[in-house]
Amino acid sequence: MYALIAILDEKTELIIKDIWKELYEKSISIYAYEVENRIPHITLASYNDLNKAEYVKQMDEFYEDKSAIDITFHSIGSFLNSGALFFSPTVTIELMEFHSNHHRYFERFNDNPNSLYLPNNWIPHCTLANRLSPEKLSEAFNYCSKRNSTIQGKIKEVALIDVTNKNKAPIVYSKELNEKNTTKV
């Protein structure tokens, strides 16, 4: 199995890693440490099987001229009956177009019509904790809802990861996005 993930800027990544560490130290969640070298991310797509060489080639071409995406986390949420807690980014037109344009371009690779990452199914999120008991979920929610105010960052890179192994998710290939030109004319 493979996933395409959106990697966040260093400042935002550090905030989330600090939360992961604090949840671990408070004996609330071990999520961050269940997978070797886990990095904060937003999953954009998933695939059961993949021609990696062809996908990487297409990924390199498609993302060559794509710009970094501004992202703002205003809220936290949970999926029903999952024990998951996540930061939920503001759903902007730019974020939705970024996601849907990816799926349109890479449609031939979609081998799971029930994927939760397809357009019209996707709930963008950055996981803070997972598989928590109801008591730990409540504890994590209370902690995380008070820890931060709004977090503003960027999606700065996309990466294809191999999630075949339960305890590892190595990056197969990544592509940095272009910095936006902020010069006013």
Present the secondary structure layout.
Layout: E1 2-8, H1 10-25, E2 41-47, H2 52-62, E3 69-77, E4 85-89, H3 93-105, E5 126-129, H4 134-147, E6 151-162, E7 171-176
Antiparallel strand pairs: 1-2, 1-6, 3-4, 3-6, 4-5, 6-7
Could you walk me through the main structural features you see in this protein, from its secondary elements to its overall organization?
- The protein has 185 residues and is an alpha+beta fold.
- It has one domain: Cyclic Phosphodiesterase, Chain: A (Alpha-Beta Complex), CATH 3.90.1140.
- Helices cover 29% and strands 27% of the residues.
- The chain is built from 4 helices and 7 strands.
- Strands 1, 2, 3, 4, 5, 6 and 7 form a 7-stranded antiparallel β-sheet that branches.
- The protein is globular, with a radius of gyration of 16 Å.
- It starts with a strand and ends in a 9-residue tail after the last strand.
Key structural traits:
185 residues, alpha+beta, Cyclic Phosphodiesterase, Chain: A, 7-stranded antiparallel β-sheet, 7 strands, ligase
